[in-house]
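hi support,

uploading two proteins for the ticket. first:
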Amino acid sequence: MKLCTFSVVVPVYNVSPYLERCITSLLAQNYRDYEILLIDDGSTDDSGAICEQYGEQDSRIIVCHKKNGGLSSARNFGIDHAVGKYVIFVDSDDYIEKKTCASLAKLIELSDEADVIGYNGVEEQEGTVTSTRRIPVEKLEFMSGRDYLYTRCRHRNLSVASWLYCCKRDFLNREGLRFQEGILHEDVEFTPRMLLKAKKVVESPVQLYHYIVRDSSISMQKNREKNIKDLFQTLEKQCQMAETLDRELRKWIKDAALNSYLNMIQEARMYQPQYRKYIKKSFLWNKAATPWNHVRVFLCTINVRWYCTINDFYKSIRKRT
């Protein structure tokens, strides 16, 4: 089995209208030392056949078919079968810049083989393109995973999307880092845990990833009950994990978890009867680290509908300023 620099892990499930664009962007890389693992996670459309067609055309493509197990299961399968020194995650309805592998190879060299390489991307929705993360510097930053997590949580610019991180495969295996299966918001659970284990993280502001927002995606589904339940359980576990950490990091991880909790309450309009039962007001207390989060907690504990209305108004004002 030939070793290579990168293993690009692509979970595939019923994305035939978008899959060719994704694979084409992977094959267009101006860097040659990589493999592409297309993990067909039990697709019922033409996705599996499309994978096979590309696999016959290019020896760098490895096609694996497995029983449907979800996104986490497919990513874990890819990690287990990868031979690259580093693992890159790409969702099959997204695509990457042709300079991605070359840029990451340079970052690996400059960082003396950091455990984790962070980078930027853009979000595309109905013709609108925005940056996926707010990287505050125009130069490379090197730090431990603990310091990286602390800094990003404190400044409210931590991205948990796994497709914005390139991870050393030996690091993932050594630390037993895999995605939790059977849940949504798997990146919320995985990324902070992964970063805490990293000895060295390097981050670059270069935009390499194109994230496509689709109305049919899991995060955009109107019935959000599983979204809510899985996210809230994950955030509760994060706060339990934070109890084992030093005071400052614990403070900002809990504030970040609270922020995500409050955001879901607003986005899902959880004053609705079918969702109201999932709100644990006890979770809201003693986690706010910023004045605005203190205000949000106060409003939310008084009246969830008022909280959503006032928060909407506040956000609309911020957009205009």
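and the second one:
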Amino acid sequence: MTDAARGPVRERSVSAQGQDLCVFLVAGEHSGDSLGGKLMEALNKHRRGRIRYLGVGGRAMAAQGLVSQFPLEDVAVMGLGAILSRLPLLLRRISGTARSAVAAEPNAVVIIDSPEFTHPIARRIRRRRPDIPIIDYVSPSVWAWRPGRARRMRPYVDHVLGLWPFEPEVHERLGGPPCSFVGHPLIERHPWLAALDPAPLAERLGLPPGRPVLVVLPGSRTSEVSRLMQPFGQALAKLHSHGLDFEVVLPVVSSARGMIEQQLAAWPLRPHLVEGEDDKFRAFKLATAALAASGTVTLELALAGTPTVVAYKVGQLIGPIVRRMIKAPSVVLPNLVLGENVFPEFIQQDCTPANLADALAPFLGDTPERARQAAALAGMPAALQVEGLTPSEAAAGIVLDYAENGRGWPRP
């Protein structure tokens, strides 16, 4: 294959280690911007700033030197209604970003999460310039649902940077692109979490010394809160009826606080409400146990070493469809990372007050069940990182391997 303006693309395999680099990055939402900013910081340390950045990102990436094609807010939309209302703009942004990437002739392209936005861009770049390596930072959840996406990625993604230790094996089994585990970005906060002192929160809330503390997390979305507040409250009532005495702390986000306070009227006791990331993690460290909606918060609880019971419910109509689509042995991320069901999980019809109360009761005391879970959780920090490297450093090393050495050019 040749390029009339540049000659054979094979010439691009010459090492770029001694040259300034151009890296084109594409993030589609604010979490991807945060991830991209940390990646760029690590790249800058490796290359001492000898990298020019183009692409799409937000404030975190701009702080590290990115010149964004347009504001991230143009494409950082969630929900089917919001996507449909902006569809013409989104399609223009996809096409325009791909054209800009091709025109920039970068040493590498890094797409960051948001597959509905970033993958169409990657496909367009690959069709026009198959010699440019494309790295996908954050694998789509092919291990949980729609596994066929892994094989479909292979023609236009040269390498996947996985956040989870099981993803390289999954991509190999499913026929996806080469995948390397680089670690989960949350692990970079673990030293801060380990040093965080929970005592100020206990004093501020007036928690009696020695009394068990149960942290309850019914989710941050209104749909989650509406489905979980009732069974969570009834589970607490059952624990009380069994003679268990404990304090309840409920971290909230401002968007869900109103709904939570409305539904607390039916609870048997008034929990302590706290807001903000710092107090949330202080509550995790104070907690004897936690009852949580499935999601990223379960990973935060696992890193804090908090014994936890997990629950989740979706609408009755969509529930059977979701169950058929999910291929993973668990919907709880720490269980997948550790390879065993460390956190008991109660999904859909199993999410009953009786089941939740029975599972929680042993964790509110000094029991063998609590000790076993705490011992398993001690392995989480090591399981979420490549030894000796932060996730950003591990990811930067692979990106530089492609950008400097032209790995994968020309694509077979």
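thanks. also noticed: The chain has two domains: 2-183+387-405, 190-383.
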